[in-house]
Design goal:
Helix content is 24%, strand content 20%. The chain is an alpha/beta fold. Strand 8 and strand 9 form a beta hairpin.
């Protein structure tokens, strides 16, 4: 009997301990140390940017720190986070991105309704915190230099990584500046091993690669900028042009001036060389000009109303059409030309162009030209908008060689391509907040909200003193 009582007591104590343990688990789950259920530390991505950065406390900051080693760092393309802070730069909070994605794949409304403006303007603008304890660059001329610095301020370190000590000159931290010429000796990951001279003294160190452009024929290739990807496409004709996949965006402002372009330390500064534009950079407040551009991946029943409104305001626009649009709406495409509008090329199948071969890109553009001529009797105007805003130096050059000007944008309406969000977007408010002289506005013709607001938008811009220009003004 005694043994039975002991066994019962043992079982009772064990059960009590299990109950206490279970209660402790419940309490921990309710009041844990920051990782509550449903509140995990995952990517805090701006909804407007498919390549947004990450707010993740567990993430190793080494990569972010390396990217931020350039004082004038371009951004992570629409992250909602505030960037990382290190002793090289202070990174300001990013804005919502204006990267203008448009995924009207083959003009298929059901698959993806014309996503050509996930508007995202990413602005991870780095402020200069080097202050009086830093030496700005004044490198000596070097006939053996084989690369050019593009960052406003680029630190040089003793090895490849932000954990290594900065190079000092006159006992002060040293930084290179834009257009400095250096000699690349080697590559170590994302870093170039470089040398240069300052007042006759040779400096040997490492600098973050995306902000140094190697010369053609130097034996070195450009390292992809943050937020971009190198696409390996075999191209003999265009082997001297990089094929880094970049997604267009710009940095918004509230001053009604031309916004800062994406990749300002990279390819954007060479846009003029390839006939690429995102705004009329020569526009002035004395001649306030606004360029209306409509992307037409497929016909959704609104384009004729848009044409009626434009006609009532005596406003000319550019319509970028896909091959499928020309097939299904050739009479509307013809009306565009009949009424004096520019009609440009939005490719045949709406692909990511840097992933296509030279010949495939040529076919994407030429096949639209041929069909447009056949269906309308007009020649297609040689302006093109890259699907999703995706481009590389190679694609810009191919488009230029085919006679095209590449047209990006400096203002777009978030989610206007998404037919499920027409009640939540604000076309009028977006234009009112972002207009500027020289503005190239991306507007989706599939949008009911855009169409409903268009008359008010044009009236507002007219009252603000704008005229509606045409893309043939771009020089």
């Amino acid at each position: 009997m005694k043994n039975k009582k002991t066994s019962f007591l043992t079982v009772t104590i064990f059960a009590l301990l299990l109950a206490i343990a279970a209660l402790v688990v419940v309490i921990i789950n309710m009041n844990g140390s920051g990782d509550k259920p449903g509140d995990t530390k995952t990517a805090d991505k701006a909804s407007v940017s498919p390549t947004a950065g990450v707010n993740d406390d567990s993430k190793d900051n080494a990569v972010d720190n390396a990217k931020n080693d350039a004082e004038n760092n371009t951004s992570d393309n629409g992250s909602a986070n505030s960037g990382t802070e290190n002793d090289d730069v202070n990174v300001s909070p990013t804005a919502a991105a204006d990267n203008g994605n448009d995924n009207t794949e083959n003009g298929n409304a059901t698959a993806d309704p014309g996503n050509d403006s996930n508007t995202g303007d990413s602005s991870e603008n780095a402020s200069d915190n080097t202050g009086s304890n830093a030496v700005s660059s004044n490198v000596d001329a070097d006939p053996d230099a084989n690369a050019t610095v593009t960052a406003t301020s680029l630190n040089v370190r003793k090895n490849a990584g932000t954990e290594y000590e900065k190079i000092k000159v006159d006992n002060k931290d040293f930084s290179l500046t834009a257009n400095d010429r250096v000699r690349i000796k080697d590559v170590k990951g994302d870093w170039f091993h470089i040398t240069f001279k300052v007042n006759g003294t040779e400096v040997d160190g490492y600098a973050y690669g995306p902000y140094i452009i190697p010369d053609t024929g130097s034996g070195f290739t450009m390292i992809a900028a943050p937020g971009s990807t190198v696409i390996n496409i075999q191209s003999e004709r265009y082997k001297d042009y990089d094929n880094i996949l970049r997604e267009w965006w710009y940095t918004r402002n509230n001053t009604h001036t031309i916004p800062t372009a994406a990749y300002s330390n990279d390819i954007t500064r060479k846009f003029a060389d390839y006939g690429a534009y995102y705004a009329n950079l020569n526009a002035t407040d004395a001649d306030k000009v606004f360029y209306l551009t409509f992307d037409c991946g497929y016909e959704n029943g609104y384009t004729e109303k848009i044409l009626d409104i434009l006609k009532a305001h005596n406003a000319k626009a550019c319509f970028f059409v896909t091959k499928s649009y020309v097939k299904e709406a050739s009479s509307i495409a013809k009306r565009m030309k009949d009424e004096g509008h520019i009609v440009g090329n939005h490719t045949a199948t709406h692909p990511v162009l840097p992933k296509k071969t030279d010949e495939q890109i040529e076919e994407e553009l030429i096949s639209v030209e041929e069909l447009f001529k056949e269906k309308t009797g007009y020649d297609l105007d040689h302006y093109m908008r890259p699907p999703q805003g995706d481009f590389s130096e190679r694609t810009l050059k191919i488009q230029q060689d085919l006679g095209y000007k590449t047209i990006f944008w400096s203002l777009a309406i978030a989610n206007d391509w998404d037919l499920t969000k027409q009640n939540s977007i604000d076309p009028f408010g977006t234009i009112k907040a972002g207009h500027h002289s020289g503005c190239i506005a991306l507007i989706h013709a599939v949008s009911s909200a855009n169409t409903a607001a268009l008359d008010d938008i044009l009236t507002y811009l007219e009252n603000e003193g704008y005229r509606f220009g045409t893309l043939d003004e771009l020089q």
